[in-house]
Amino acid sequence: MSDRPAPSRSTPARAKRPGWARLAVACFWLSVAAPLAFAEVATATLQPPFGSPLTLLEPAEPPPDDPQPDAAQPNEGQQNATEPGTTDPEGAARGPAENAPEAQGATGQGGAPEEAPTDAPQTPEAPDAGAPTPTPPTPLDGADGATGAEPTDDGAPDATPEGAEPTEAGATGALDVALRGGGVEARAGNRTLWRLEFPAGSGSTTEPLLTDDRLYLGHGNSLLELDPQSGVVQRRWPLSGPLERVEALDAETVAATVRHASGPTERFLLRDGALQEAVHFGLEPEMFGYLRAEAQVPDPAARLERDPTNPWLYLAVGLEEANQEAARELLRQGVEAGATFYDLAGLAQALEENGHTDLAETALDAALADFAARGYDPRLLTDPALEAVYNFPLTPLRRALDAGDAASAAFWAPYLALAAPNVPGANEAFSRYAAMLGADAPAEEVAQWRALALPRASGSVGGLDRIASALGRVGWYADLAILVAILGLHLTLIAKYWRPQSDDLKRIHAQRGYVTPVARLFALRYYTVSEKLVLVVMFAAVLALAALADWYGNAAAPPTAVRSGTLVSREAQDYLAAAELTGPRGAFIRGYAAHMGGDEGARALYEAAGAFPPALNNLGALTGDPGLFERALELEPGSLEARYNLGEAPEAFPFHARYRPDEPVLAVPTETDFQNALAGPWRAALAEAFTNPLRTLQHPAPFGFNQELWTVFRVLLLLLTLLTIAFLFVPRPRSARNAPRTLLYHVLALLIPGSGLADEAWGLLLILPWALVGLDVITQRAGWPFGLGLSLNAGYAVLGAIYLVNTVAFFVELASYRQRMRERAAPRVVVKEA
Prior knowledge:
Radius of gyration: 39 Å
Strand content: 5-15%
Number of helices: 31
């Protein structure tokens, strides 16, 4: 709209003319000037502005009271509320300061191309407020026109052209903003002033909340504050889940209620422009893409004018901008506008893909800083699905490794080590990256990445506890592998003693005239004591693993909520409140959650854990007593947290050193901690397997196996174990000593490592790893690995080493066997004395 005043309606007379002449001249000039003025006003008012998502449906006369909110999307009728705070709040997302001026009256936010005039000419014929005059749909800048009119000092609205933004004075009395027909509409009387809709997939919208001078709207998991006069989004507060309701509690406080997909609700208070509670995000995967979906509009540049708080709009506009300098500035502003770790990490991926590596690094640093500021810890992020929706580095690193893009892999690998080193799949990615570096990188660097590829454990878990938990997790699969090894060993030994047993059976048949069909099954009596002991140990291992598997299965796996990077989210808190966590580990887990949530009861819970090293470490962090760090280190010398806090291992926690440099490191609960707290000590379960084996028969069958058949199987297993023990006391026949061996035995001894060396106990060290790793490799190839934690290549390497050792030992033993057979076949020379 033009700043100049309306054209004059007459021209000065040069000479005195008669009255009728003057009237004729005035009418002539009026007939020329009036259409020109009207055309100029209409053009400025109705021309689509840069960046308006609003649509004028009916001409708007400036009503006496009409602050115009920028609308939010009406999807599923959720409600949202925020408080009328005008200061920059904590947790609120705003556009970059240099690009987002305060939207007051006629001033647009987000860098509008023109500044709105404050003194707009009045339209020639202002429509009556009660008589709507339809006009073609026209996008609006501000809330209701290309510009908005600021209120005059006396509160009376400036004259505004048809379709222009209503003034502020008295606006709350006449402006009606509500969800209507799938969109948010602002009406004054019977007239629709503007309408706003959000793209699909960006969440649902609450009923707007209009206060004296502000408009609040909930969309997706964002609480928005809009300028009622311009409709520009001024602030955005990301909340923990989809908003359900917004309400004003008093003149200074607004409450926003979110409802999580699992059912619980959570309430956040906004006071003086700041959220009063820390935000820990829920588990709804789609929620982490709401803001990106909001940017999926036909004209991102137009939308950016209306919403400078959405970083994805800056990205969309910046990537399309032809001017390189302007594009880079837009992308930089997008990074500044990011308010959550998952949006910033997503921006980093997009920026890195488009060659803006330095901005991607800035975005990732900001993402991890936000991750740390919200109380998240990378060691607690162990759910791969959540790591993916957080937009963290595992997916782009895998993509770079698959494509052979060394530069991209070099960018993402260090950030994966910072952000999610414990998530499943990270170890394999580190191993692949180390292999990609190969000989082109210093040996020390390659060794560091290979070390990262090894399984890591927190200082809160002792060595035996780690082993018990790992064996319990894979117990049934390991049992299956050992049973396969037992079967393979029996087949090899039966082939080994086939000839002496056949000779004995022929002799028995000649003496008695018959041989029972099951006679071959008693080949066990031909085995050496060492071979029988190996079998007894293997059967005992099956029983022990079954006990650990039962123990592990007695505790339900911790839910996703406690594997999301925090124990302070609403879902995690609800789980901890309901879970039966016992013992020192249970007190430690609850103490950690209370500690991170700011609960004063954390100290009492840590003290209830007694001399549990992780609890002592965290109590030292809570109280500032370094003596507790020393005590924790005495009890658990492998406690990296205690060593770090004492200054002995500054490199142990790079994430904390970088993003929490002045804070002590807390020990975090591990899967083993939860396992022990839920199922009790594993030692008791293991002891029961041997002291009361019949009770183990009552445990439920794994994999949905038929309970009756499972009971029969376990009874047979116990009988075979007892039979093997009994044969330890049965002497072997003399014919089994140095007996000739069959070709089948030699083949099986080569194919089943350790089976030909069972008469030497160290053959057990070959056959058990062969069975476990071999089954893991087979199941990985089939697409359902049972979880030893080895990559497919690592499994092949272990099997190769086992077969190499077995082959060497086999030929050494074969040479010894042939030497013994030659000595046996050689004729004895008897020398008689004269």
